[in-house]
Design brief:
Layout lengths: L20 H6 L2 E3 L5 E4 L5 E4 L4
């Protein structure tokens, strides 16, 4: 688990509180099924890298 989420006490399938949304989104890289990745930053930016065949 990323360090940014260590203090959150939630389980699988539980709703993320609005107060924790920034920490949840910026904790790591999202990896999609086809291999594309997306990163959210705390300043509101996002980087999406699609898989290039």
């Amino acid at each position: 688990m990323p360090e940014a989420l260590q203090e959150l006490r939630v389980g699988n399938d539980e709703v993320v509180d609005a107060d924790h949304m920034s920490a949840a989104l910026t904790a790591g890289t999202l990896v999609f099924g086809e291999g594309a990745t997306q990163v959210f930053t705390s300043d509101g930016h996002t980087t999406y890298r699609p898989v290039v065949p």
